[in-house]
Amino acid sequence: MSVNAWDSDLLVAPFPRTEPARREDVDRRLHAVDAPAAARRPRLLYGVIAVAGAVAIAGAQMGLSILTTQGSYEIKELTAQQRTVDWQKQILADDVAGLSSPQYLAANAAALGMVTGQPPSYLRLSDGEVIGAGTAAPGTSSIEALKKAAVPNALAGGVPLVTDPDSSLAAGVAAETELVIDPAVPPAVADGLPTPRTH
Amino acid sequence: MTTRATRSPRRRTVIALLVVLTVIAAFVVRLVDIQVVNASDHIEQSQELASGTEITLRGTRGDIVDADGSVLATSTLVYDVSIDPQLAAHGISRRDADGKIVKGADGKPEVIAWPELAARIAAVTGQAPEDVTAIVVDKLASDPASRWAQVKRYVSTETYRELAALDLPFLTFTAVPSRTYPDGAVAGNVIGFLNSDGDALEGVEKLQNSCLAAQNGTLTYQRGRDGVKIPGTEVEKAAVDGGTLQLTLDSDLQWYMQQLISEETARYNAEWGGIVVMEVATGKIRAFAETASVDPNDPGASEADDRGSRLARFSYEPGSTFKPVTAATAIEKAGLTHLSSVVVPSKMTFDNGAVINDSEQHATETMTLTGGLVRSSNVAMSQFGALVDPQTRYEYLTKFGVGEKTALNWSGEPDTGFRLLPKDWDNQTYYTTTFGQAFTVTATQVASVYQTIANGGVRMPAQLVESCTRADGTVVEPDLPEPVRVIEESTADEVGLMLENVFAQGTLADDIKIDGYRMAGKTGTAQIYNGKGGYKKNLYFTSLVGYAPAEDPQYVVLTVFDEPKKERMSSANRSVFKKAMTQVLKHYRIMPSESETPLLPLTD
Fold it and tell me: Does B549 map to a domain?
C-alpha cells in the first residue's frame, strides 16, 4: 500500500525528531534514530548572566515599586498641603471680597472729608498754564458716598471703614422672597393721542 | 489516483474542518457583535454595574470683567453641611488633651451627648443651639432610620473649615459652585444673577450664558474588587472652563452714576431715574446706571421689580429730544439752514385741522430753525417738519433707529417703534411725529441719536459686551450690526452747532454750564401714557441728553427721570446732567475746549 507524502507527514508528525524531515526521507523505511549527539557542557558564564539578569530585573522592579510608593505618599502629602492652602486662599479671598469695590473706597474717602464732582483743571507742563476752571474745590461733594450711600454691596456692608472704624456701609436688607423674574411690560401706545403738550 | 479508501478519510477531514470552521464563524460573529455592534452598551453596563467609576469634573463658570478688567463677577465655592442623625444621636466619646478616651466611673467611655455637640456646631454656624439640636431630634422622630439631614446650606469656606476642625464624624460637607460679585450692586442691573442652582436668571449672566457657562468633563477608571483604581484605565475628558466676558462698562464710572442718580431721584422725588454714558466714536456704553440696582450677591434683598433693568426695558415717546432729527431731515430734504425761519404763534391750527400748542404762551415771532430747537417750539418744528413728506420723515426716523431692536439684544426689550405707518398717519400724527410723539423708543435709542449726530452722522451699534475670551484663549467679538451712515457729515455738523446753541442760549444754560467745555444737547419732557387712552396729568418722563466737548465730541450722556414731582419738567434733570457730564470729562481726562460756542440767531 503506497503511502503518499501527506499521509506520511500525518503519521510521523507526533514523534520528536532531531532533524527536520526532508522530501527524500519520505520513501525510506522507518529506522531507529542514531544515538543522540553528546550534549556539550553548558558554559557557566551563560548561567551566571541569566541568574544575574533575573536578580537585576527583580531588584529594579522592587526599587521602582518602592520609589513609586514613596512618590505617591509624597503626592498625597503635597495634595493635602495644596488643599489646605486652597482653603486658606479662599478664606482670605472671602475676607477681602468687597473691600476693593468703588462704594467702599468712596465711603472711606468721604469719611476722610474728601469731596468729588468739581470740573477738572489741568496744568500744562510746557508753559505752566492752568487749563480749565482752575478754581478751588468747594466744600460740598456732588455725591454723598457715605451718608447717602445708595449702591449696596452685601460683601462690604457692615464692614468698618478703614478711615473711620465707627462707621460702615449699611448691610443689605435681607428679605427672603421668591426670585421670580417678571420683565417689565412696556406701556402700549394708545389710539388717539390727545393734543400734545411736549416741550 | 483516488480510491474509496483514500477518499473516505479525506472527506472526514473536510467535514471536521467544516465543523470547526462553522464553530469558529459562530464565535467570530458573536465576537463582532460584542466588541463592535453592541460595544457601547456593554461598556456602559460595565461602567454601571461592575468595575467602572465615573467622576464628573466640574468646570468653573467664567468671570465677568469691566472695560479695565476689574472683576465684576467671579466663581467661588460654598459648602452644604449635612449630618447623619443616627450617628449624631449617639454622641461621641469624650477625649482628654492627649486624645485618649476618658472613661467614667463605671469603666465605660464617657459620652458627649448630642445637645452639647449641637451647641458646638451652632456656635460656628451662627444658628441657635436649640435649632441645631432639633434638626436631629425632629428627623429621628419622623424617621428613626434616617441617615441624612441638612444642617445649613451655603456656608463659607471659613465656616466649613471650622466645622471640620470640630472633628465630628457625622458631619459631611458638599462643595457647591457659587457666584460672588465683588462690587455688589455696581452694574447689578446689567450683570444679573444666578439662582441657587446655578442657573442664570437675569442680565448678561443669562444673555451671555453660552460664553460664561462651563462644560463639565468626566474621569472614568476601573476599580479592582478591593476598590483600588486599576492603573492605566483612567480616561479623562477634561472639563472646559467658561469664558471671561468683558463688558464695555467702566465700574468706577458706573458706581458714580448709580450713586448720583439715586441721590438725585430722591431729591426730585421721581419714581426712578437712569443715566446712560455712551462713547461717541464706538457706541460703547460706559455706564448704564439706574436707581435701585439689584445686588447680585443677594438678589432676594431687592424688590422683584428692581431685579432687572428698567432702563433697558422701558420705552417711551421721546418728545423733544427727537426735534434734532426733524431738523436734520429738513436740512437734507427741504434745503433748510439754521437761518431758515417760520412765523410761530404759541398755538397754531393747521390747514388739515390739526392743532399744535407750544408748552408756554409766547408772543408770535419769526423763529429760525435754531430758535425752534432752543425754545423747543412744537409749532415751529411742526412747520419745518411738514416741508418734508411723511414717508421721507419716516425713513429718516427709521435710519436713526426708531422701530429697530437695539444691538444690545436685551431680554425683555420692549417692542418699540411707530404706532402707524406714514400712509395711515392722521392729521394730528402728521405733525406730532416732528417732535417725538406717536412712536416709542428706549433710552439707549435716544442716546444713539445723539451719538449719531456727534459722530458726524454715522450711527454705531450700541454695545455693552466687549468680548468673550474662551478658556483656550480665543477672543470672540460680539456679532454687531454694521455702522449706518444716517445723515451727511455737513448736516450733522450744522445740527450739532444748533444743539450747542440750545445749551448756550436756552433757559438751562446757567444751570448746566461746565467751565471750560463746549457742550451740545437737548431736553425732553415726554408725556406718559396713563393706560386709559390718554396721558397722565402733570406727570412726565423727563430727559436731558447731550455730548461734550462739542467741537470734538467724545461722550454722550443721557439722564432720565420717571415722574419727578419736585420739579415736573426736564428742568429736574439739569443738576444730574451737569454732575454726570463733569464726572465723565474728569474720568476720561478730556481736555477743556479752546474755543467758545458761536452764537446763532434764534429769531429773524
Answer: yes
Q: Which B residues in the span 50-109 are in contact with A, Cβ-Cβ below 8 Å? A: 70, 76-77
Q: What whole-number distance in Å separates Cα of residue B514 and Cα of residue A132?
A: 10
Alpha carbon of A168: minimum distance to chain B alpha carbons (Å): 15
Query: Does the structure show a pLDDT above 70 at B51?
Result: no
Provide the sign of the torsion angle of the four alpha carbons B470, B474, B478, B479, taken in this order.
Answer: negative
* Whether residue B285 sits in one domain with residue B137: no
Residue-averaged pLDDT of chain B = 89
Q: Quick check: B447 and B462 in contact, CB under 8 A? A: yes
Measured distance CA(B22)–CA(B20) in Å, rounded = 5
Beta-carbon separation of B252 and A144 below 8 A? no
What's the rounded mean pLDDT across residues B534-557? 92
Mean predicted confidence (pLDDT) in B289-317:
88
Residues 87-116 of A with CB under 8 A from B: 87, 90-91, 93-95, 97-98, 100-103, 106, 116
Question: How much of chain B, in percent, has pLDDT values that exceed 90?
Answer: 53
Q: What is the pLDDT of residue B419?
A: 84
Asked if pLDDT for residue A199 goes beyond 80, the answer is: no
Smallest Cβ–Cβ distance between B582 and the set A119, A149, A180 belongs to A119
Instruction: Examine the fold and report which residue of B178, B203, B235 is the final residue of a domain before the chain moves on.
Output: B178
Interface test with B, best of A2, A75, A86, A151 (most B CBs within 10 A): A151
For the whole model, what pTM was predicted? 0.79
pLDDT at A176: 32
In a domain, B565, yes or no: yes
As for how many domains chain B has, the answer is 2
B555-587: buried (b, 16+ CB within 10 Å) or exposed (e) per residue? bbbbbbbbbbeebbebbbbbbbbbbbbbbbbbb
Domain final position from B178, B200, B220:
B178
Q: In chain A, positions 178-197, which contact chain B (CB-CB < 8 Å)?
A: 179-184, 186-197
Do B181 and B295 contact (CB within 8 A), yes or no? yes
List the CATH number of the domain containing B405: 3.40.710.10
Q: Which pLDDT value is given to residue B160?
A: 92
Measured CA to CA, the distance from residue B495 to residue B512 in angstroms comes to 20
* Residue B180 touches partner A, C-beta closer than 8 Å: yes
Together in a domain, B140 and B264: no
* B317 in any annotated domain: yes
Mean pLDDT value across residues B219-239 = 74
Same domain, B155 and B272: no
User: Can you tell me whether residue B144 is helix, strand or coil?
Assistant: coil
User: What pLDDT is recorded for position B40?
Assistant: 85
Average of per-residue pLDDT values in chain A: 75
pLDDT of residue B399: 93
Please indicate, yes or no, whether residues B263 and B165 belong to a single structural domain of this protein.
no
Partner residue facing A102 (CB), from B186, B357, B378 = B186
Do B306 and B167 sit in the same domain of this protein? no
Chain B residues near residue A157 by CB distance under 8 angstroms: 184
pLDDT classification of B276: cutoffs 50, 70, 90:
very high
Indicate whether B171 and B262 sit together in one domain: no
- Regarding whether B516 and B379 lie in a shared domain, the answer is yes
Q: Do A155 and B516 touch (CB under 8 A)?
A: no
Q: What is the pLDDT of residues B354-401, one digit of tens each?
A: 899 998 888 999 999 999 999 999 999 999 999 999 999 999 999 999
Question: What number of other Cβ atoms are within 10 A of residue B475's Cβ?
Answer: 12
d(CA B221, CA B233): 5
**Residue among B129, B130, B121 at smallest CA distance from B171:** B121
| Contact (CB<8Å) A174/B320 | no
Sign of CA dihedral B371, B376, B380, B381: positive
Q: Does B449 share its domain with B567?
A: yes
CA distance readout (Å), B463 to B204, B250, B278, B403, B476: 12, 13, 9, 18, 14
Q: Taking CB atoms and an 8 Å cutoff, what residues of chain A touch B314?
A: 184, 186
Residue B225 lies in a domain: no
What residues make up the domain containing B141? Answer: 82-87+112-178
